[in-house]
């Protein structure tokens, strides 16, 4: 990838040694071609339930939960990502966690469902820029061109050997969710792809 992003001189991923640090850094930048940045801590719930639960959860959460496969919906600081016929990833600002949990619990008190707080299990990155597709396709088998993977498409997939949740937020911006224990590896792989 000759036009691939490169780590800036002051980036924590500018050297192989630095790539092995904590996943809390904000990584790799590449001018206007592509960049990666760590996103702030967030509230995350894995929500599962039938149609009645989905409807009630959407009302309480403030975002209608997508019913079409591999779609995302967002409003303000909240988003719902379709992961399966009865499974959604709910995202909100970190400080909204308690309010979200309380509202959802009240709305779903008499409805069968499952909701697990995975806020600390995962971290998120934004991959952005004109070459964002190329950077992600260096290790992801999906066709990420805009026709095949348009704005607000989301899915579970892999990057190299790591499972991720990938969401296209705008034509040149992707949101990537990954388990915290794999974040360092993922950013290291992006840095290697950028250098290649």
Work out the helix count: 4
Query: How would you state the average pLDDT, rounded?
Result: 86
Query: What amount of the residues lies in strands?
Result: 25-35%
Q: CATH first level of the largest domain: which class?
A: Alpha Beta
Radius of gyration: 17 Å
Order of helices and strands: EEHEEEHEEHEEEH
Strand arrangement in the largest pleated sheet:
1-7-10-9-8
Q: Which structural class best describes the helix and strand composition?
A: alpha+beta
Biggest β-sheet description: 5 strands, antiparallel
Distance between the termini: 6 Å
How many domains, in number, for the residues? 2
What gross morphology would you assign?
elongated
| Helicity level | 10-25%
How many strands appear in the DSSP assignment?
Answer: 10
Q: Examine the coordinates and then state which fold CATH places here, giving the name of the CATH topology of the largest domain.
A: Gyrase A, domain 2
CATH architecture of the largest domain: 2-Layer Sandwich
The CATH H-level superfamily of the largest domain is: Probable tRNA modification gtpase trme, domain 1
Low-confidence stretches: 1-27
Task: Describe the model.
The protein has 196 residues and is α+β, with helices and mostly antiparallel strands. It has 2 domains: 18-40 and 121-195, Gyrase A, domain 2 (2-Layer Sandwich); 42-117, 2-Layer Sandwich (Alpha-Beta Plaits). Helices cover 22% and strands 33% of the residues. It contains 4 helices and 10 strands. A hairpin with a 2-residue loop joins strand 3 and strand 4 (78-84). Helix 1 packs across helix 2 (97-107). It is elongated and about 55 Å long. Mean pLDDT is 86; it is low at 1-27.
């Amino acid at each position: 990838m000759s036009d691939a992003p490169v780590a800036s001189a002051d980036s924590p991923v500018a050297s192989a040694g630095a790539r092995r640090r904590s996943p809390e850094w904000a990584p790799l930048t590449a001018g206007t071609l592509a960049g990666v940045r760590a996103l702030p801590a967030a509230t995350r719930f894995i929500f599962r339930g039938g149609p009645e639960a989905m409807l009630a959860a959407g009302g309480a959460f403030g975002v209608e939960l997508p019913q079409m496969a591999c779609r995302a919906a967002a409003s303000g600081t909240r988003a719902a990502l379709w992961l399966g016929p009865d499974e959604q990833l709910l995202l909100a600002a970190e400080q909204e966690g308690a309010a979200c949990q309380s509202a959802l619990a009240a709305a779903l008190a008499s409805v069968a469902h499952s909701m697990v707080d995975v806020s600390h299990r995962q971290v998120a990155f934004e991959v952005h820029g004109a070459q964002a597709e190329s950077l992600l396709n260096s290790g992801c088998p999906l066709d990420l061109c805009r026709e095949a993977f348009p704005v607000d498409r989301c899915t579970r997939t892999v990057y190299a050997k790591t499972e991720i949740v990938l969401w296209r937020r705008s034509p040149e911006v992707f949101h990537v969710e990954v388990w915290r224990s794999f974040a360092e590896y993922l950013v290291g792989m992006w840095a290697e792809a950028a250098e290649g």
